[in-house]
Write a structure and sequence with these properties.
The complex is a heterodimer of chains A (368) and B (369). Helix content of chain A is 67%, strand content 8%. Chain A is built from 14 helices and five strands. Chain B is 68% helix and 8% strand. Chain B is built from 14 helices and five strands. A four-stranded mixed beta sheet of chain B has the order 2-1-3-4, with helices on both faces. The longest helix of chain B has 32 residues, at 172-203. Classes of the chains: A alpha/beta (368), B alpha/beta (369). At the A-B interface, helix 2, helix 4, helix 5, strand 4 and helix 6 of A face helix 2, strand 4, helix 6, strand 5 and helix 7 of B. Strand 5 of chain A pairs parallel with strand 4 of chain B, so a sheet runs across the interface.
Chain lengths: 368, 369
Amino acid sequence: MKRLVALVRKESYQVLRDPAALLITFVLPPILLFLFAFAVSLDVKDVKVGVVLESDGTQARELAASFAATPYLKVTPVRHRNEVESKLVSGELAAIAVIPSDFEARLLEGQGGAAIQIIADASNPNTSTFTAAYLQGAFANWMSSEGMGGSGAAGIQLQQRFWFNAELESRRTLVPGAIAVVMTMIGTLLTALVVSREWERGTMEALLATPATLGEIILSKLLPYFVLGFVATAGCAFLAVQVLGLPMVGSFPALMLISAIFLVPALGQGLLISTVSKNQFMAAQLAVMTGYLPSFLLSGFLFEIQSMPWVIQKITYLIPARYFVSSLQTVFLAGDVWPLFLRDIASMLAVGALFFGITRLKSKRRLD
Amino acid sequence: MLGRLFASVIKEFRLFMRDPRVRAMLFGIPVMQVTIFGLAATLEVRHINVAIINDDAGRWSREMVSRVSAASFVNELVYLDNMAEFTDRLERRKVLLGLHFPADFSRDVAAGNPAHLQVIIDGRRANAGQVTLSYLTAIALELGLELARLDPQFVEPPGAPVRHWFNPNLDYRWFMVPNLAASLSMIIALMITSLSISRERELGTFDQLLVSPSTPLEIIVSKTIPALLAGGLVGMIIVAIAVFAFGIPFYGSLLLLFGAMFPFVLSVVGVGLVISSLANTQQQAVLGIFLALTPLIMISGFATPVENMPLFLQYLAQASPLKHFLIIVQGSFLKSMPAADVWSNVWPMLIIAAVTLTTATVFVQRRLQ
């Protein structure tokens, strides 16, 4: 026990002396959090559109004026469509609305025909959908203000309500994801680098030759990072709630418990990476490819896991961040849902056990 | 002098390619990555579970439910009796959303009154929720229009049909896979360069380089070229995967794209060399890379458009080489972007490259003195 305490103390000094580790723990989290809060936004605003007015009619001009007056559209008015088509290619415009020369006649004709045409730049399909919907909405508004909104049945009206995130701020779902990314970097990347450096320099062999057991050495290496990760989470949670205005519907102890559990598979993964790779370059590459990028792309906060192909969905079961994101979003936005937490905690522990188990098998062989 | 430069470039190459595992990883992992992430990264919604709470026994709620259940985005419909059950399922993420039909739904439809249908969505999954809502809106509109047509008095207003240029089926992969080609080659190039100087410094061989007749410029050039070729090669491999494995159309000029790839990788290598020349150890270099990499990717428009960002971040985005190259990659794949438009995105990358490579050379020079 005493030996372990001494070892932990040695490792802690080593971590505290390292400016890079402290940079990752204290500087990177706020940067990432702010980027996610402000840079990543799926809310399209100020859409740049070209309005091609080919008709001289009064109604056509009125419609063009109404497009220009729509708050979230930035309109470039032109007379010919070839003036703006090349701007769709260069990306200067997101869409074009063409008001054809026979616009008035088309309006009278009705029967679901095309009064105007909308051409959207679908090279980003998501933006394209939003932009087209804005333009169609602006057109429908103008139509009903002209008394041409259609008559007859009133139809089915959807009343949408978003629980846990009533104003649909994307920040509220993204910031918990950013915390998961930060924790993955501390838990997996930092650990992988540190331990692989020991192997690369041969200091690991030196440690192994001491009376300390392998378990003690590993534990003493991981504990400081566990504490760093813990401190970083607390800092992130403080920033998220106090500065970025996230609600904290659940309880703080629940948040800390989930974060502590997440560090088990994250550290395990880092340890495993350092054990299978010979040098820091390999370790860094593996940590990026199996830890960092999956925590972004496969953890479910940017892309819906259920929408992924079957095989990929199965792969995500091995990504600890997947469970962490689910629980984090819940504790911030929905509250303490213990059935969900317990399921995620069990899964994270299982993945952690897997990583530590493989590490154990691999490191035994290394010693021979 | 040229012979000396050539020799040190060769040396860098050998150093790098010596380790078969590094070789395998350099090219194998990006291929794996683009496949997995290309398949995973989609904003289309599929296979979701929808809860139905139906207080209405009439015909029209059943009609609406059957249309939803036939839709391609639904995996399973979960029929629930009351809101308490629904709250439980939603909290536990068993369903993405619930459709709640009020008791007078069918009566309102039959009477021609607006019939309200409550859609309750999990706000934790706001993206998927919004996309699904748009699918549901389309279904409701379609049904509403069919109902309206039953009325002989009904006059259908003219519409505003949309044509989606460059990606008519709105396939998200056509957007994502070219983006991955750019981002993954950036990550590879950054990693290679960041470790090159810092590794020599950590092992102590950097001092040997400094006492050799090589000038700082030569050192930088010899570190640049292998990374440039490796990053470019990875980019080309992924472009080939995008076209041949994912079947993404390539309408532009391959020559222009590959031509633009070199200024891109060069500017990325410049960023990597600056970080590498500042770091004392490999570990610091890798962590420095991460500090730079994440913002570079996030403000580039990789996931969300630059236009959605606050103005000061839009200005900052100009400093990210990836931002400019993404426009070229997307333009080359789908839009057959002309040379003039490509050029207007190439010169900012050349400026970034010039600034970063000069800075790196200055840093190395300072070490000499």
